[in-house]
Fold:
Amino acid sequence: MGVQVAVIGSGREHEQRAEEVGRLLAERGCTVVTGGLGGVMAAAARGAKSVGGTTIGILPGERRADANEWIDHAVVTGIGHARNLAVAASGDAVIAVGGSWGTLAEIGFAMRLGRRVVVLDRDVEGLKRAATPAEAVERALADLD
Amino acid sequence: MGVQVAVIGSGREHEQRAEEVGRLLAERGCTVVTGGLGGVMAAAARGAKSVGGTTIGILPGERRADANEWIDHAVVTGIGHARNLAVAASGDAVIAVGGSWGTLAEIGFAMRLGRRVVVLDRDVEGLKRAATPAEAVERALADLD
Amino acid sequence: MGVQVAVIGSGREHEQRAEEVGRLLAERGCTVVTGGLGGVMAAAARGAKSVGGTTIGILPGERRADANEWIDHAVVTGIGHARNLAVAASGDAVIAVGGSWGTLAEIGFAMRLGRRVVVLDRDVEGLKRAATPAEAVERALADLD
Amino acid sequence: MGVQVAVIGSGREHEQRAEEVGRLLAERGCTVVTGGLGGVMAAAARGAKSVGGTTIGILPGERRADANEWIDHAVVTGIGHARNLAVAASGDAVIAVGGSWGTLAEIGFAMRLGRRVVVLDRDVEGLKRAATPAEAVERALADLD
Structure:
């Protein structure tokens, strides 16, 4: 298996940067893992697919059809917001782009499980903010691949 | 059903205040919901039982025996850290006393689900910190009971 | 903590017997755990409350208001059908009254976790069917309380 | 996205047939979804990889390293046996090869969610048993791809 990086977050104003994160990860050969729905999740997957990358969507509901069109492999969990744990846990590293309370839950889980977490376009106490998508990807992958 | 309040958090230095929170909630007739294990979780349940309150422990593992001795009713979820969602969701309000990343995940879920969240002995961006256990309980229950 | 017994199942024709199971369990001092919704779940809780017993409902959704009116303590899991694991795991023994595929999932989990499972009004390969609610309760509690 | 089929089950004596199921599914262009661990799960993934197929493992624990070596994409759920729901739900169809109580839980969930379920090397009331891996795959995919 290659390196998997989870991209999480939300907020329309963050989608362009999430797309760049997804593209950069795919260019580095990483599989991009997201929550599989719209917004930042779709943007990251779209970025990865724009350069031929591979994407996994971990869905909260019970139907594969909920996945956005850039998802290669959909995991249908049926466990609602608890799927945030699976998203966070499935990344060798996690990049948060913007995001609100659901993203905070994912960051909390990722840190609890000892995953490397990089934040972009938001601040979380105890985490160092990346200035650009390139820096976020660089820090997420340092020593991993 | 009466009012249920979830008490979450961790950190030895916060246990005394968590115990006071549990006691005050029980004196107000609330059922105290926790994650059912040790530390702040046990302290809150102990406080509630010290005045004859009722306690529920929502456990991450697969065995009832994991529950601390102040738990009246143990729910054995078997879903690990994902039980944090159930703890947060089962409170009409949530009081966080101290705590680290796992607590942050619970706060994120509680806010995502629209629960009222009061923080004590810690800061979370966007939430107003209570100064004392009494204030935390007062704000948690305002307009609820 | 006293003995907790999970009552699972579905089917309108099984509700009367489920109510009797709930009543008998409460008379024996057991807390009755169910999935918290209607049908057999509500019947078992109603039976327990008819003799002053205690009931816990482990709900699949995100709202306490989904619980039936005979639930004393509602656990709101937010994890959909995966809450079946928690229902099965939270019983020191599990009694299945009728039921369809969801009940089969709970029986599978309960057996996987080593819980004692008694079936009433249905057959499951490898399990001995109880003839009456009284026999089901007797076998569920043998050596437990 | 292409068709995804979940292969579930357990029992050393069923591994050869599970491997054949995995191989036949991959030859038909399906992605093979499993629980990601050993035994029947590993056999099905090995069969798929033997002909260049794609495999997804949905793990119960918190570490990617738990996945067997034939898994291309590991989803780390952290939710223990509750990940059985995700395995069942992620298949457009589900093929059970042998298996014990955990498999029964997955079959229960798959039927509850309306997935097509085919059983091989075991009987489940209400389901028609396939005689061979080829028949199991044929029936799983009928009208799907």
Remarks:
- Strands of chain C lie at 4-10, 31-34, 55-59, 73-76, 93-98, 116-120, 129-130.
- Residues 15-27 of chain C form the longest helix (13 residues).
